[in-house]
Amino acid sequence: MRRLRPEQDAFGRVLLEHLDGNDRAATIVERDDGYIEWEPPAAYFSPFRNWFAVERQALRYVRGRVLDVGVGAGRVALELQQRGHAVVAVDVSPLAVRVARRRGVRNAKVLALEDLDGSLGRFDTVVLFMNNFGLFGSERKARRLLRRLHALTTDDGRIVATSSDHTRTTNPAHKAYRRRNKERGRMPGQIRFRLRYRRLSTGWFDYLFVTPREMERLLSGTGWHVNRFISNDDDNLYAAVIDKDAS
Amino acid sequence: MRRLRPEQDAFGRVLLEHLDGNDRAATIVERDDGYIEWEPPAAYFSPFRNWFAVERQALRYVRGRVLDVGVGAGRVALELQQRGHAVVAVDVSPLAVRVARRRGVRNAKVLALEDLDGSLGRFDTVVLFMNNFGLFGSERKARRLLRRLHALTTDDGRIVATSSDHTRTTNPAHKAYRRRNKERGRMPGQIRFRLRYRRLSTGWFDYLFVTPREMERLLSGTGWHVNRFISNDDDNLYAAVIDKDAS
Description:
The structure is a homodimer.
Chain A: H1 10-19, E1 27-31, E2 36-39, H2 53-58, E3 66-69, H3 75-82, E4 87-91, H4 94-102, E5 108-110, E6 123-128, H5 139-151, E7 153-164, H6 172-183, E8 190-197, E9 200-201, E10 205-208, H7 212-219, E11 224-230, E12 237-244
Parallel strand pairs in A: 3-4, 3-6, 4-5, 6-7
Antiparallel strand pairs in A: 1-2, 1-8, 7-12, 8-9, 8-10, 11-12
């Protein structure tokens, strides 16, 4: 997904209205097989103590100067700032960036993962929380972007990312979607979504959920490898601490 | 809208899941200009004391044997049963009818307003609550169905219905939709919707919001007229007590 135009910024509009006290604002998440859900924005605002346990644990592995990809309402950037990290936060949503700034994120920019270049300097850690490993989109795009991140990070650079093990779903509609993906030669957890709110809608985009094994396979050959997984049995969400291969 | 097939019964599925304790179940309401919202189902279950004031007041005008069109989760039918009325309740949604029965509605059937005939007997009052004057759909269809209801009701038969004065909206998207309707020769408050939940979706259908003046014009020549309107300044929702013309 690239920088959103105003009529596409459904997600950011919901964050902004939530911040301004509209408790009915929620993102409508539509999948390309017609499956549709609403997602309340509160989780994007939650303080550290309310995060999933794997997220709280994963934060320990963040070090140095940080790039927060997909800042949303800023919960991760704010926590890292408070811990003393220098943080650059980016998001494709201009309104999300506005929300993050209003909430105190000091350095937030409208920028897509695909458009990152050396102009922001080098980072010690890249964080992709709230399933944002998914922003890699597809196998091919993931490999390209992982190589790019390799060049934009320091020698002991690190990625701390979360994803969800989509094989653990019991929902028949989700299982059918995974089967269809495999038949079409896509990764099983490669989900085509659009986000809507009122008349706003993003275009369709691919968001990638991977199992821990799929993540390891994806990283192979990109200069990155998984140092450790953080997971628990209660939840499909897991975190990965991803380090550079020895050179 | 006619009797819904299982894959179309988004509205009824949400009611059923809400009854069974899923507090995330909500209907996604999509308009044909792309405007999309979620609607929590709680209002369909609310006890009399929590209804809108105009609804509570309108209930005083219900008399005799009642046909409840669009029973939903049964709140109106249950209240009327408790007051001693004989009630026949109908809905296009098989799952809504199941929910209404489970909640104690004694006589609930899967039947569309369009499919009503003499087999249910004659009624003293037809109730169309929760904006269900909208089920008349369009000017042409409203006139046809109003004449049919005339034949299916007793000599002093009555319709008690609610609608919303759509001219009172301040939402630019809603105003634009009304303008577009006028340009296309539709009634301004004739809204093309579909209701979705997960992969379930009704077909597109017209739902009609009318001003009090539009309602009076619509009734003219059908054998019905408005006896009284019940409204207040705080809300767009109003009720109409509709009686038969002197013959």
